């Protein structure tokens, strides 16, 4: 998901007040119980509510347009987080509603799989929106993490579908955002909403898991909405081993390359892939190409894409490190405590519908409270996002403290 509301705003250029400045922080000392993770907040632009309302309506999001009340300031936020035990800088987009009289809830919103660095949320352009700005205009202090491997951390290969890095990078941005709000007298409530689609759905649950299992973060999830994420990675492995063609081989190449790097396996890619694909993948996943261009350069048939020895080991007792990693990073056997909704289209062929079915069934069997599965009949991976948003907005608004 590159955008929720991918929009060309040239027609609305008069509505935009673009600027580049570093936000002036108040000098009043802040009482801290832990390290301040905020590095910097650079104001990028101000977007009037009228422009966002028009865009939401033109994209068929009347339910969101009706909630838009506030002009917003848009920032690039840089903060500290951890990658393999080392402190690094990460980044993301922050949207702050202006002239609110009361305290605003925080929304952490998570994007889908991204191969091209230019689509990182913090690479904000006034000619297109990330899609989450209207939530800021509806009164949510909105945080959109780039994720590790994008923005200021682009020198690192994104730890794709790694549960710990997915969760902590978001939690640390939330903490940095809260630090910014406090230093700048922006009133934030204790309410925290999480939402995301595709990889962002996985990141949403990974973040919720990190918060719920570690109360020392000092955060509580009010509600969490996750759409079409690959929560059950063992289920995804079974799909590969079924031998059926998979139309999105870039995702498979990405996760193997990410695990190989993140866990320091440092194996040659020929261990996993046949030539010419083993050589191509290093060049293809370089942060400059789109998913469609990568998919078109790779075999859709697993028997042609993967090294036969590798496939045989996966079907047998080999490749235990990979199998363990997939199990460890799966969310199927975790039990969410906060109100949670899972969304998935029944016709999704990128992340199969059965992935959420198996996850939901396992969570319900473990007595997950306040968990709902919203099925989207006939929905594909792209077309199911809009129905999710239409259900998610009134649900979140119903839980919001006014």
Automatic annotation (TrEMBL):
GO terms for molecular function: triacylglycerol lipase activity. One of its GO terms (biological process) is lipid catabolic process. InterPro entries: AB_hydrolase_fold (IPR029058), Lipase_secreted (IPR005152). SUPFAM superfamilies: alpha/beta-Hydrolases (SSF53474). It comes from the Bacteria. This is Phospholipase.
């Amino acid at each position: 998901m590159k955008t929720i509301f991918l929009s060309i705003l040239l027609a609305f250029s008069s509505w935009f007040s673009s600027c580049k400045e570093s936000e002036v922080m108040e000098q009043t000392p802040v009482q801290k119980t832990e390290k301040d993770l905020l590095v910097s907040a650079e104001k990028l632009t101000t977007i009037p509510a009228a422009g966002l309302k028009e865009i939401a309506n033109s994209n068929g999001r009347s339910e969101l347009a009706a909630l838009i009340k506030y002009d917003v300031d848009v920032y690039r936020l840089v903060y500290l987080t951890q990658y393999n035990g080392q402190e690094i800088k990460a980044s993301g987009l922050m949207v702050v509603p202006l002239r609110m009289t009361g305290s605003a809830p925080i929304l952490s919103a998570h994007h889908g799989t991204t191969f091209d660095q230019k689509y990182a949320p913090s690479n904000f352009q006034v000619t297109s929106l990330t899609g989450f700005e209207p939530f800021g205009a509806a009164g949510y202090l909105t945080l959109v993490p780039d994720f590790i491997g994008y923005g200021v951390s682009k020198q690192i290969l994104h730890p794709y579908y790694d549960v710990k890095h997915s969760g902590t990078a978001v939690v640390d941005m939330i903490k940095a955002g809260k630090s910014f709000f406090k230093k700048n007298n922006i009133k934030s409530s204790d309410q925290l909403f999480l939402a995301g689609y595709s990889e962002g759905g996985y990141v949403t649950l990974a973040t919720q898991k990190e918060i719920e299992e570690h109360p020392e973060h000092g955060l509580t999830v009010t509600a969490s909405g996750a759409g079409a994420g690959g929560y059950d990675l063992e289920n995804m492995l079974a799909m590969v081993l079924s031998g059926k063609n998979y139309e999105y081989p870039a995702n498979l190449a990405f996760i193997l390359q990410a695990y190989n790097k993140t866990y320091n396996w440092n194996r040659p890619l020929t261990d996993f892939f046949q030539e010419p694909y083993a050589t191509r993948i290093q060049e293809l996943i370089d942060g400059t190409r789109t998913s469609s261009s990568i998919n078109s350069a790779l075999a859709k048939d697993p028997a042609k894409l993967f090294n036969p020895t590798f496939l045989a080991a996966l079907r047998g007792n080999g490749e235990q490190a990979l199998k363990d990693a997939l199990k460890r990073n799966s969310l199927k056997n975790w039990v969410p405590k906060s109100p949670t909704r899972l969304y998935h289209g029944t016709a999704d062929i990128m992340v199969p519908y059965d992935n959420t079915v198996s996850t939901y069934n396992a969570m319900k069997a473990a007595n997950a409270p306040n968990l709902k599965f919203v099925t989207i009949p006939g929905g594909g991976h792209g077309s199911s996002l809009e129905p999710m948003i239409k259900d998610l907005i009134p649900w979140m608004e119903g839980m919001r403290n006014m």
